[in-house]
Every structure is written in C-alpha cells, then in structure tokens.
Amino acid sequence: MTTNIVVQQPNEFTFTNAKGTFITYVTTSINGQPQLDYKTQHGHGNYHFSGQEIDKLETAIGTLVTVVIERPLNRDIGGNLVKLTVLIPIINLPVTEGEEKVKTEAILTTEKVAGNIRIPLIGQIQTYEVLALTGTARFVNS
Description:
Blueprint: E1 7-8, E2 12-16, E3 22-26, E4 35-39, E5 46-50, E6 55-59, E7 62-70, E8 79-88, E9 93-94, E10 99-113, E11 126-138
Antiparallel strand pairs: 1-9, 2-3, 2-11, 3-4, 4-5, 6-7, 7-8, 8-10, 10-11
C-alpha cells in the first residue's frame, strides 16, 4: 500500500544571524503582494519593501529575492548602490506540520555606479558581504 504525502510550499520566512540581522520575507501578503523586512543590528537600518520593489528570480539553486537598500545620494556624481539578496531554498512542508528550520545565505552587494557626469569607473565595481542566516519557513493561512 502506497501512502501519499501531501506537501505545501512555505509562504513566510524569518531569518536571523549572530550580527543582529533580521529578515522576514512573505511571498504573498494580505494585499496579494510580496513583502520583505530587513533590520540590522541595534536598529541602524530598518527597511520595508513590497510589491515591485522586490525582484524574485527562480534559479537552479533556489529563489533569489533582491531589494535595493541604498542608492547614491547624488545622481550627478554617482556613489554606491547596495542590494540585499536572500537565497530562498526549495522547501516542502507536510500539510500537517507547517514549519521547518532553515539555513541559508544572504549577500549584500555594493556596486559603484557612475553618475550623470559619466566619470569612468576603474577596478572592481562590485563587492560582496555574505551573511549566514538561520530561521524558519512556514505556511501561514491568509
């Protein structure tokens, strides 16, 4: 006799790390839009993103969820563009148990951008900081 196990995909992810980073990602909120909250240590950064502010890319290694957390202050002279990308792994949850522990990574990408003045950029344009994250994936009924 074969037993069929019904699974569901999580729609809410919460992550933290030892450096005080806190990330919550909801695939579909009450208004039907994705939401991502990103908080850094001691409240130095507190960001909220929703809808089209969130880029989602399905890849062979999972889903990459990216938001822009900082833009150059002066568009004429350029500066740093900082993006946060969270790797969301594929997770199957049994319908009877709606929660699973998760280990993943986030990457902070700092990219030098030229301004409207068009000064050429020399050298490495992007640098990365990898954040090891642990947390929970769960299914929440809306």
